[in-house]
Every structure is written in C-alpha cells, then in structure tokens.
Amino acid sequence: MSVRLAPPIRLLATFVSLALATAPLSMAADSGNAGSGESVLAKSEDATYQLRHQLSPEQTIRYKVTHVAKTKTRMNGTEEIANVYTTSVRSWKVQNVNEQEITFDHQIDSVEMTQQNGDKDEIRWDSRTGEKPPAAFRVVADQIGTPLATVTIDAKGTELDRESHAGSKASLGMGSLTLSLPADPVAIGDKWTVPSEIKARTDDQQVKTIKIRQVYTLKKVSAGVATISVKSQTLTPIHSESLRAQVVQQLSDGSIRFDVDNGYLLSKQLDWDETVVGFQGPGSMMEYRAKMNEELINDDVVLSAVKSKKPLR
C-alpha cells in the first residue's frame, strides 16, 4: 500500500515534474508463453489473461510523459490561474532479474517545463538545451540523468524494496511507480483493487490520512492489446472542502493499454475535471483541469520477458 502526501492547492511545475517521474509503468505477459512467438490470447469469449511484469537484465524501457494542468482559484473576489505544461522522458534500467524479483533504477532522462502563475511572466526550460535552469526548476534539473530510486518488485508489481536517491514519491493521481497486477488470471469485465493512502493537512495544520483505492477493470482485449480502466475511490469520508481540494488532485480516472503478448505498456491516459466550492471559506472556489498522457518510445529496445529464462511466478 502506498502513502502519498497531498500537494498544496497552487500547483507548481517543479512538483508536477517530480510527480511525472513517478508515474506508473506496467508490463504484462503470459507466464506460460513469454517469448514463444505465439499469441497468448485465447479465442473464446470466457478467456482469461494472466498479467505479469516481465523484464530482462540490462533492458531499458523509456516513456514520454506529457502533463498539462490548469488550476483556477477564487478567494475574496480575486481570481488566479496557474498553468503548467511538462514533457519528460523517463526510464527504467533493469539491474537484476530472478524468478521472484525485478530490480531496476528509475530516472528522468530529460524534461521540458513551462509554468505561468497569474499575471507573472511565463517560465520555460528545456533540459536538452544545456541552459541554466530557472530557480523554480532547479530541483528537477539536479535530478536529471541520475537514478531517483532503485526499486525491487515482484511479478505482480508489488514493491518489495526501494532505495531512494532523490525525488518525491508524490504522484498527483498518477499512481505508484509500478502498476499492481491481479494475483489471478482475469476475464473481460473483471476488477481488482489496490489500497492506498493520501496524507492531507487540515485547517489547523494537522496531518490527516485519507484512505483510497484504485479500481482496475479489464475492459477489452483486441489484436493482442488489452485496455484497462482505472478509477480512484475515496474510502474515508471527507467533510472538509479544504481537504477535498487537496485530495482531488491525487485521484486517478483514465485508461491503460498494454501489449498482452509481449508484456509492456503501450500508453496511459488520465484526466481530471474537478471543482471544489468553499475550500477556503465562503466565496472561494478551486477548479482543477488536467490531462496526463504516457506513451512508449524506443520500442525497438522493448523485448518481451526474459526469453531464455523461466518467467517470474
């Protein structure tokens, strides 16, 4: 179960970029046919699919993540709009694979960020230019190209160990670093849930734990591509609008596509469209509109799971 600290109401580009770096990556493969060259997809309507992470030693997986967010706040008759646009390339570099575990380094390879708060000048920075980053992006700049964490997971994506080198575990609803897969084979329409927690601050600055869960549903499998929906459910009753304004940025609603035969994520899309009234007293309002897209790049280096080894169980 993951624990996340909710961000402040005003969305900062630095925080968003770190969150993007921890966006989830999932891979799935049928353990009995990985690397056989034959489709693992049965033809019958009641077919089931076993989803498992499968990676090879020294394999590198890269993804492009684009996050666009607009936060509008209104307090005491004053309205302010914050816009953030971030594009990053992140990677998993696999260090070790055995029958029970996968260990990999997670890092940001490059990032392009744009931020504008209210009437202030827009701030831009692209790590690929070699230019000195603005102060607002310096923390992110210091982390590019070096491992943020060394993570060990099992075949279902459960995190067994993490050595953090830098960065934040915050996710802004983008999930944990890996996708937790179901223990048993699933059929079309089957669901599985993953518990999680969000830490939010009350009006008196106390930290409150909000329990949530991610609900995954296998929607369809077509031409070897599985589509999974994901939606967050809040389990802890929230009676304070200030808490709600923090939590909504941490909830997920979207879809994931991955290659069932070869075992890797193809794309992920999440959307946010939230309005909270009264989060800072009467007359206050927050609107949060955002979209996150994640897509595989350099797919020529993405191999199905360890073809010469026994698959993870």
From TrEMBL:
**Signal sequence: where?**
1-28
What are the alphabetically sorted keywords of the record?
Answer: Signal
The record's listing under Pfam families reads: DUF6263
Write down what this protein is called.
Uncharacterized protein
What is the scientific name of the source organism? Allorhodopirellula solitaria
